[in-house]
Amino acid sequence: MLCIVFSILSCKKKRVEDGTLTYLDSSSSPELTVFKAPEEAPKNNTFSVYVRYEGGEWIDLHEYDAEVDGGNLKVPIYHMAFVSFDADFSKKIEVKVQKNNGSMSNVSIRPDIEGIKPTNINDNTITFSLTRPGKVSVEVNGDLHNNLMVFANRPEENPVAQGTPNVYYYGPGIHKIGGNGQGTITLKSNDKVYIAGGAIVYGNIEGTGVDNVSISGRGILCGGMYTDHAYPHTVGKNLIKLENSTNINIEGITLLNTVSWNVRLNFCNTVSCKNMKLMGWTINSDGINPVASRDVVIDDCFIRGYDDCISIKGSYAPSANPLAKDTKNITVQNCILWIDQGRAVAIGPESYSTELRLYENINFKNIDVLYNENYNVEWAKGAISILIGDDATARNVKFEDVRVDRLGLNTNFITIAILQSTYNVSPGKRIENITFNRVSLNTTQQPLQNRIWGYDATKKVSGVTFSNLKIGGTTINNTTSGFFDINSFSENIIFN
After folding, report:
1. E strand or H helix at 260, and its extent?
2. CA angle 64-69-75, nearest 5°?
3. Separation between Cα atoms, residue 114 and residue 91, nearest integer Å
4. Closest Cα partner for 4 from 29, 36, 50?
5. Engineering a disulfide at 296: which of 94, 153, 271, 320 sits with its beta carbon 3.0 to 4.6 angstroms away?
6. Beta bridge partners of residue 392, listed in sequence order
7. Which of 130-134, 295-299, 363-367, 443-447 has the lowest mean pLDDT?
8. What is the DSSP letter of 71?
9. Residues 6 or more apart from 165 whose CB is under 8 A from it?
10. How far apart (Å, rounded) are the C-alpha atoms in residues 165 and 149?
11. pLDDT over 80 (residue 233)
12. Which residues of 146-181 are buried (b: 16+ CB within 10 A; e: fewer)?
């Protein structure tokens, strides 16, 4: 694997002359790994970023470019930068950021809960420190569009070795599936895809009816060679699409410039998505969508897109789908979400089923939503959204330690509704036992009305409990202070 490994202590360094590896001869040395980018890697010139262990030598990182915010346009509007490295964090990590086209008079580093403050601010340069792995956004002079993401990972555990059986191995460099970067890796049971640090793979990955598959590494899976727009859905390829499959592990990789959903899990069981970084700009560049799936864990991921970050659906089809089934046991935790338009967290409304279906045991824990702007569509509201159609029931859903920083125009904080949207063949049946613990909207701006709506006297929302709900730092104890619109088909709405 071509990488640069730096270990900083007070003992002697040992250097390989080609510059690809620098390390100490002590096995107890702290480790800092930077993967060399391919020469053709997308480059963002807004920032120059350097990293080191405290007191060590600065290492120049490659600033990758991620296209963001475009929607129905044929090209993106903005370009976000991101950098990545691995460290064991046995010592403090220092990061230096230089803005190449102006001063840095006002800098924020989010999420706020990390408590990271820039130091040594000097016109166009700042430094800050990291004491643990994380994903942080550096925003200069209030610019949310052209920000810098810093992805600090722990070293990989048990990386896949080249030559291992049943492995699609992609080492450092550029790889174009199908020769033109528009091809597909088709998985079989027990296959692994390993995208090494410093590798960019153009194309997509699919598997149907497979068991025990993994997609991992520190490299990038990119849809940048596709020219299809996201509509119609049958044209745009998902970067990762798995159907009727079990025992799936996706970990560590970056997904970039998809033309449709990033990760689509149709009718899958036992799935882990961990430490992924997903950035998309086109409409329907959803992040991770479990569709009629069970036992799914989404952990420690960064998602920025144009539509929904996490969208949990009963099914997805142009008409009633006989394959639709219960969606249950979904956990989303320790994630950072950013949606330029759409919803950060969405349950429903799609089921497309003529039979009763169930969304059950769905948990969101320790989530930071850095930005969310809704579509200006009446039914598609909410940074946190539960919309149920197609005779389905949603129950036993919990939001705990969810922090929403900023809302855009036309955007609700919380929407819970039984409805029949353009994506449903009938209204939903029931929403019950929904819990919010320590959920907050941190901006002082007044949101659009939050909404809890049942459909009619037989299709009700029942049992929604808010404990320590805050808006702009104020604890919400009633519907008025929380800007809630609750209709007569909703009952047992409790504020603690």
Report:
1. none
2. 80
3. 17
4. 36
5. 271
6. 357
7. 443-447
8. B
9. none
10. 35
11. no
12. bbbbbbbbeebeeebeeeeeeebbbbbbebebeeeb
SS3 label, residue 114: helix
Q: What residue ranges do the domains of the chain occupy?
A: 29-153, 167-495
Q: Are 302 and 326 in contact (CB under 8 A)?
A: no
At residue 88, the pLDDT reads: 94
- Pairwise CA distance, residues 156 & 216, whole Å: 10
Q: Which CATH code, of 2.160.20.10, 3.30.300.30, 3.90.920.20, 2.40.10.10, is assigned to 167-495?
A: 2.160.20.10
Enter the tokens of residue 457. 């006297």
Q: Give the whole-angstrom CA distance, residue 24 versus residue 6.
A: 8
| pLDDT tens by residue, 36-70 | 999 999 999 999 999 999 989 999 999 999 999 98
Pair of tokens at residue 147: 């920000």
- Residue 209's region, left for phi above 0, alpha for psi from -120 to 50, else beta, is left
Q: If you write DSSP's letter for every residue of 433-451 in order, what string do you get?
A: EEEEEEEEE--SSPPBPEE
Is 90 exceeded by the pLDDT of residue 324?
no
**470 burial class (0-12, 13-18, 19+ CB within 10 angstroms)?**
middle
Task: Supply the pLDDT for residue 423.
Answer: 85
Q: List residues bridging with 277 in a β-sheet.
A: 254, 302
CA 469, 387, 396, 211 torsion-angle sign: negative
The angle subtended at Cα 15 by Cα 11 and Cα 16, nearest 5°, is 160
Phi, psi of 459 (to 5 degrees): -130, 85
Q: Coil, helix or strand for 65?
A: strand
pLDDT of residue 332: 98
Distance between CA 411 and CA 422 in Å, rounded?
Answer: 20
> pLDDT value at position 23?
32
Q: Span 29-153: which CATH code? A: 2.60.350.10
